[in-house]
Amino acid sequence: MMDEKKRFIQEFVPGKQVTLSHVIANPDEGMFENLGIQQAGALGILTLTPSETVIIAGDLATKAADVKIGFLDRFTGSLVIVGSVSSVEMAMEEINRFLSETLQYTPSRITKS
Hints:
3 helices; 5-stranded mixed β-sheet; single chain; alpha+beta; 5 strands; 32% helix; 113 residues
């Protein structure tokens, strides 16, 4: 029996926007282990278009608050930051503010679970 090849197709909507801003407060310890990142009080998850914006966002996050970058992918626009709940929220607010006010991006409402 032949193995069926699978394709991954990724689409981006043209424009400059923060497509997701979500804080996971006090996640399960196993989540950090599964992600292969340092354990902290919160995870901040962002996706950005164009994807290279994630480099700017990572820089903004680490300068705005006491957070660490858990994951950054300039090809998909994914950013995960870790730190205390308040630090992650502060970093995400600054990312949205700067991108909106300075670079004219469409910001995303920061959600929390």
